[in-house]
Every structure is written in structure tokens, then in C-alpha cells.
Write a structure and sequence with these properties.
The complex is a heterodimer of chains A (196) and B (346). By secondary structure, chain A is mainly α. Helices cover 76% and strands 0% of the residues of chain A. Chain B has 346 residues and is α+β, with helices and mostly antiparallel strands. Chain B folds into three domains: 43 residues, no CATH class; 122 residues, Phage tail protein beta-alpha-beta fold, CATH 3.55.50.30; 127 residues, Jelly Rolls (Sandwich). Helices cover 25% and strands 32% of the residues of chain B. Classes of the chains: A mainly alpha (196), B alpha+beta (346).
């Protein structure tokens, strides 16, 4: 009987409202796979999609007392999931903003780079190349591009002259642009084989 | 100018077909509040029709569930203090409750349960907030959760019949010749050597049986149902629509209360102090007698004494002072004494 005779969703919600961990587990079993893959389709990241599942269900547990039995649990779950996905997506895009800008700058004259595969590969390549900058240059570069600090601020913070800061950024940009320009198959291959 | 959120573009993005330009548009839709409701409704309809198919490999989410479980348990263990102002009735109740730590008495009761003979019964009561552990005469180990009562016949070894109200966990001593039966309001749980837990609260609408090990048979009153439970299965009976269902459960999780947390459920502060004192081996000196009867609700799961005291004083109208430990004349340290007073009203 136990395979066919399951609780209805509404019954599970009533049980959950009465603090039943069993009902919680069953709702998790019902929706976690779907939620994971749904989140993944937007965030393209395994760990972030897992986090969404965790965040959403934790919220459901915390809000169990105010669950409505006359409303669909599925839509309730969506509302929480949408906000979590949106928040995560925006955060990620904010972190990547400087890379997008760089990418635009680099691909100005190369519209063919716009396909997703190219784009993703290049973003990863960019990460890799930034990682290869000399420590101090990388620090200055990220302060400027990622954190959006002004040349003056960086100079003050690091106790160096604004001119040095400018030079370091120019060096970094030139290096990146040059590395992207000889964007031949072998360098991509090298990158995929040894780095990712 | 506001453009239109393009559902096809979003759908393609979720399938991995998008250009950098597409991504930038989606980022704008997500970030700009003017698009909030549009993009939400587009994604909502995606969610409504989203189904798992062969492209979605089953993802192992058990680690995620375990983390959730930990958080949920941790939440239970942390302070759930709720201050309660006492009424005259509560004061009376407090006085009555104190001597009832474990109440064990003979009584005649077949008013509530339809039992044929009138031989004497033993009753064990676990007061609110306490877990009571004991062995039955046949060697069965029982844990009673707060506010539970268990009755059994004086000739228990011959006739292993129990009546339960509340939550209990049993580790049954195996004896093939004598069936072990727990009666609840709506069903009998018949056991064949096993570890299981039963919850049957008079004021609640459901009766639960959770099986950890072995096998039990569930017999509904008036033959309304007969079910057999296997390990890690739970039976949940709804008294209102008079039906029950078997579901797979994590039994060790559901029975974890028996493993001892310091739990208080509307207990007088005097009693709370007694138990905290025994738990941490300290003595409380209650200066203002009114403090005794304030009622408290909290669960502690191993916090240090100072933290427990701090939490009590935060949520109760009391203040405390930890006294220097004295050395008695044998040269030994005496127990730490904690003075508790009524907080001065402002």
C-alpha cells in the first residue's frame, strides 16, 4: 500500500504546519530534484543550485507556521525559489561585471566571439590570465576593475604613487589584450588541458 | 525605454543557447526592478511546465537534506525561551507539579480504555519537559517524553499490555511467548521484538508510530485496519478522517528526543533551577521567593552554564550573581553558588 497510498500535498502541508519532520522530508523528496535542475538552468552552477535547494527548504521550514493550505504549495515554493535564484543571479552577475566589461572591450571588433561557448571559454580564460598576473599587479587590477576603486584610493591604500597604479593597470590590460589577441586553438587547448 | 521581456530568449538561456548580448539583456531584466513582475511571470510559467526528463541526471541531494536536518535540530536546541506571566492558577499548578517529578502509583482505570479485567495497573508519568527512562519488569527499556503517561498491569510479565498517552520510545525485550502490545486511543501496536516510538496525544489530531528496528503490527480499534511496519517506516493516523498511511522515515531522527536534551516546557523557574543545578553541579540560592513560580519554556542542548544563566536572565525577570567558591574546613571547594533575585522593576 505504501507506494500508491501517499499523502496528498495538502495533507503534507497540514502536517508540516504541525512541525512534522516527516512531512518536511516528503516535500523535500517531492520537489528537491525539480528545484535543483530548475535552478541549475538559470545559474549554471552545481554548488549554487544546491544552495538554492537548501535555502528554499530552510525557509519553508522556518515559515511552516504560516503555510496556507488553500494555496498551492508548488506556487509558494516558486515564490521563494524565484527570489533566491534572482538574488543569486544578480550577485554573480555583479561579481562578473568587470569581466563582462573587459570582455566587451576585448571583443569590440570581434562580434563572432558572441556565441555562448566562446564567451564562457573566454571568461574562464580571463580568470586564468588574471590569475597569472604578478601578485601586486593583480591586486591593483582587481581593486580597480572588480571593486571599482579610484586610482587615488588605490594609491593611498597601498602607499604608492597614482602614477604607479596607472602604469600597473595599463600593463595588466595590455597583457590581457595581447593574450586574447593570439587567441589561437593551441592556447585554448593548452588552457583546457592544464587548467580546467 | 522599457523593452519586453522575451520568454523565448529566457528559455533559450536556460537551455544554454545564448549570446553575450542575450545574457546582458537578461541581466538587465533581472536587475532592473521595472522588469521584476514581467520576468517573474515568465519564469513562473517556466516553473509550471518544468518537468524532469532524461537530460536531468538524478542529483544526489542527501547531503543537502542532512544539512537541513542539522539546522532544524540546531534550531530546536537553541533557546526557545518564552516568558510567561504567572497567574494564580499557575502558582497553584507549580506547587502541585513539583512533587510529581516521577509519579508512579497504582490506580484503577478502565473508564477510558475498554479492558476486561480490573486488576491493578501501574502508571508512570513523565511531567512536561522531562524525559523519563526506565525498564519494565520484562527488561524492556522505555523512554517517556514530556507529558506522557504509560500504564501497565501489575502482572506485566505474564500479560505485556501497556496503555500509552503521549510520546514513548520502546526497546522491547524479545519474548516470543508473550506478545507486547501498546494500546493507544485509536489502535494497538503489537510488537515482535523491536525498537519503536509511539506518539498518541489526546489533544492532538494524529497518532504516530515510528519503527527503528524489528517489526510491529498495528491493529485499529474495532478492526478498522491492520498494518505491518518495517524498519524506518512510520504510520501516521489522522483521527479526524480516521485514516492512516505508512511512509518511509528516518527513524533515528524522529526518535532523537530520547537521547537527552535539557527541555523545559512551562515549568516553574524553581524547578528549572533545580535541574540546571543538577545538570551543571551548581547550587542556586533563590533570594526572592516569587522567582520560584515563574514558568519557563526552553530547550538547552549543551550550552555552557554561563550561557544558560545569561539566557534565563534575558528572558525572565531575574538577575543572577555567581559567588566565589568557598573552601570548606576540609580544604575542599564547595559547590559554586549562584544567587538569583527578582529583577528590580523600573
Amino acid at each position: 500500500m505504501k507506494d500508491t497510498d501517499r499523502y496528498t500535498e495538502q495533507e503534507l502541508v497540514i502536517l508540516l504546519r504541525n512541525n512534522s519532520p516527516v512531512a518536511f522530508q516528503q516535500l523535500f523528496d517531492l520537489y528537491s530534484q525539480k528545484l535543483y535542475h530548475f535552478s541549475f538552468s538559470y545559474l549554471k552552477s552545481d554548488s549554487e543550485s544546491e544552495e538554492i535547494v537548501q535555502e528554499v527548504f530552510l525557509k519553508i521550514w522556518e515559515k511552516r507556521g504560516s503555510l496556507k493550505t488553500d494555496k498551492s504549495f508548488k506556487s509558494y515554493l516558486f515564490t521563494i525559489a524565484f527570489n533566491a535564484i534572482r538574488k543569486n543571479f544578480n550577485k554573480k552577475m555583479k561579481e562578473d561585471k568587470y569581466k563582462h566589461e573587459l570582455f566587451e572591450w576585448i571583443s569590440e571588433e570581434k562580434p563572432e566571439l558572441e556565441s555562448r561557448i566562446e564567451f564562457e571559454a573566454l571568461l574562464q580564460k580571463l580568470d586564468f590570465l588574471i590569475g597569472r598576473l604578478p601578485e601586486k599587479r593583480k591586486e591593483i587590477f582587481l581593486k580597480r576593475k572588480k571593486e571599482g576603486k579610484s586610482i587615488g584610493e588605490i594609491a593611498d591604500e597601498m602607499g604608492i604613487s597614482p602614477k604607479t597604479v596607472k602604469n600597473q593597470i595599463t600593463e595588466a590590460m595590455n597583457y590581457l589584450k595581447k593574450s586574447f589577441d593570439d587567441n589561437d586553438v593551441s592556447s585554448l587547448l593548452f588552457y583546457f588541458l592544464f587548467v580546467s | 525605454m522599457k523593452e519586453k521581456v522575451d520568454p523565448a530568449l529566457i528559455r533559450n538561456y536556460t537551455k544554454g543557447q545564448y549570446s553575450f548580448r542575450d545574457l546582458k539583456r537578461i541581466v538587465q531584466w533581472f536587475q532592473d526592478f521595472r522588469y521584476h513582475s514581467d520576468i517573474k511571470s515568465v519564469i513562473d510559467s517556466h516553473w509550471e511546465e518544468f518537468g524532469l526528463n532524461e537530460n536531468h541526471a538524478e542529483k544526489d541531494l542527501s547531503a543537502v537534506f542532512n544539512k537541513l536536518k542539522e539546522k532544524i535540530l540546531a534550531e530546536k536546541n537553541t533557546i526557545g525561551f518564552r516568558q510567561r506571566f504567572i497567574s494564580v492558577y499557575a502558582r497553584i499548578a507549580a506547587v502541585l507539579l513539583l512533587p510529581l517529578l516521577i509519579y508512579s502509583a497504582f490506580s484503577l482505570l478502565n473508564q477510558t480504555f475498554n479492558l476486561s479485567d480490573t486488576s491493578s495497573w501501574v502508571e508512570i508519568v513523565s511531567p512536561a519537559g522531562m524525559r523519563t527512562h526506565f525498564d519494565l519488569p520484562d527488561g524492556t527499556k522505555v523512554s517517556l517524553n514530556g507529558d506522557a503517561r504509560l500504564k501497565y498491569k501489575a502482572n506485566f510479565q505474564k500479560d505485556r499490555q501497556l496503555v500509552l498517552e503521549g510520546e514513548a520510545y520502546f526497546n522491547v525485550h524479545h519474548d516470543a511467548s508473550s506478545p507486547f502490545v501498546v494500546q493507544t486511543e485509536v489502535m494497538d501496536v503489537k510488537v515482535l521484538g523491536t525498537k519503536f516510538s509511539v506518539v498518541s496525544m489526546a489533544e492532538e489530531n494524529s497518532v504516530e508510530v515510528v519503527l527503528e528496528e524489528g517489526k510491529v503490527q498495528l491493529l485499529g480499534k474495532d478492526n478498522s485496519f491492520v498494518e505491518t511496519l518495517n524498519p524506518n517506516e512510520g504510520f501516521f493516523y489522522n483521527k479526524e478522517n480516521r485514516s492512516g498511511k505508512i511512509t518511509t522515515v528516518d527513524a533515528s531522527y524522529l526518535t532523537s528526543w530520547k537521547d537527552g536534551l535539557l527541555v523545559f516546557r512551562n515549568e516553574p523557574l524553581g524547578e528549572v533551577m533545580n535541574r540546571v543545578g543538577r545538570w551543571y553541579n551548581v547550587k542556586f540560592d533563590i533570594v526572592d521567593a516569587e522567582v520560584q513560580s515563574f514558568r519557563y519554556r526552553a530547550t538547552f542542548g549543551g550550552e555552557p552554564l554561563e550561557e544558560v544563566l545569561r539566557l534565563i536572565s534575558l528572558t525572565a525577570p531575574v538577575e543572577y550573581e555567581i559567588k566565589e567558591r568557598k573552601i570548606n574546613k576540609d580544604g575542599k571547594f564547595e559547590n559554586k553558588i549562584i544567587e538569583v533575585r527578582l529583577k528590580k522593576q523600573l
